[in-house]
User: Fold these one by one.
Assistant:
Number 1:
Amino acid sequence: MKRVPFFDNPVLRGQLPTWRARLVLILLFGGFTVLAGRALFLQGLSTEFLQQQGERRYERTLTLAATRGTAAVLKAAGLPCQTVFKVNEGRPNAVDLLKAGKLRLVIYTTTGGHSFSDEQTIRRNSVTYRVPCITTMSGAKAAAEALCSRRRDPVRVWSLQELHETAQSAVS
């Protein structure tokens, strides 16, 4: 098989018409101009849009609060969290955060009989302030998976009539 050097390739030897080369340059310049205009608009003229997007993204971040032992484990895993006192250790504790409305979910697992009074106080206040309270690690894992699933796949609702129509069309 005869080898042809790259620069002697017959396809590359042909000259492009000048109008094609100019068309390519004009299209590249036009695309660059559009991108530069969009960047200028977003960064210079529409700062309120970027501010709103940033505030929405900030609202979606989770802030974790935990007692000393749990906080140490979370920080070792690379998750930033706020350390709070247990109910009988001082303030601010979990009940204070519940009353202030700073907690949206409580995960409380007991480690022995001495923590029963803390657990009772936290559960009572979470019910009072309408904050969900999970008391097992398997329940916490299921809740975390549900939150991730809800972010990934939004909730869809169908009426019974729509379900019946699709079932009938599948049978037909």
Number 2:
Amino acid sequence: MTRALYLLDPEPSAPWAPFAGARPLSELRAGAHLVRERWEAFVGVETAEIFTLPHLAGFVEPGVPTVSARRPVTGPAIIGSSTFAPRGVAPPLPDGPLRLTCRGVTVGWGVGAGAQWDGPVAQAPVVEVPGLVLHGAYDLIPALEQLLGEDLRALLGESDPVPRGSTVLGDPGLLGLRGAVVEPGTVFDTRGGPIVLEAGVQVASGARLTGPLWAGVNTQLLGGPIKGSAIGPHCRVRGELASCVFLGYANKAHDGFVGHSVIGRWANLGAGTITSNLKNTYGPVRLDVGGTPLESGLQFLGSLIGDHAKTAIGTAPRSTSRPSPGGRAGRAGQARDPGGSAKTAFSRSPSAFCRGATSSWTRSPASCSGASTIGPRAEPDPTALATPPAFASPAPAAHIVRLALERAAWWTPINTGESASSSCTSSSAQARWASCGRRTTLSSAATSR
């Protein structure tokens, strides 16, 4: 019996920021495939409809089926969870109602012919299915590490020959080239897993590609070490990349390290954008979403970047930064409202301006315990920055260096059109820069020690 396939998004919750409410969660990438594509391979039919939040009804994207608010479903049908990434093919399923589970967690429902489903069915027979339960957007990183290798082995088959001038480290049989254009000087390292490049992929000379790695159609790999990632179609990637998920149509065309991150569609990472993906303590990364603390359980986690988000040149988001869909992130302490004007702030540290309990931004350290998001904030009070921290007692040289650097960052303006030297003498900023000379003396003294 052929069953129709419907996918069901969960109620909005903090762990799925910044993608919940911006796109159906079934359109996120788990391994080399979208969650929807995994369900379609699992059940053996294309998705008939995606049920999600009412405001996403009518969501349009090439290849995406009808998106609508949840409604009753008439069988025979399977209703699958968008937060579950199936593996392989479904086992034989009974004709009547059923409940799909993975390690005790309900991940789907089945409804028999002529019956109607509008929610959980009591006493439905349980069928255990293989796959990964996803608890949040951050779980796409461990899913990548667990699923990508086996996904690519299933994709291997006939391949173009190894391009002249390229070097293969490992088994050439783990290299799948399907009409990719590869310049001489490219290194393929398959010792860690397969490498599959789809039609139209372009690889520039000097790129070192380390498996497992998948690049979708018409993606450009412009150079640098790229490893352990699933890069969707029509992306541009340059510089160091490790364990990242690109949904597609994103741009990282310049140097800069991005690791253990999820990049939304049409996102743009400015030149020199560098993500932090590891805490100084080497402990599990904790997120804070709108005041809700979340334990990711992951030692390595970078940034979760929403659709259409943009970073300025030289941006260095800390671990678990989550630029919202359409948001714009600048250097530390700078943000732009989606579609709004620039917000000029003062660069101090990545956590200098964090979202507090309210919708405004704050400098209070108490509110900076979690990840930052890009959104509206209040302008800083210049008078609050005019008085430098006091020295209670003589400090060791290392401490003086640290304070000097902190002072330098505290008073350095960004996007003001002034250089640091001219700002010290500017009459409009005289109070703010009253301590510039003292700061220079302190920095010089620290250097001389």
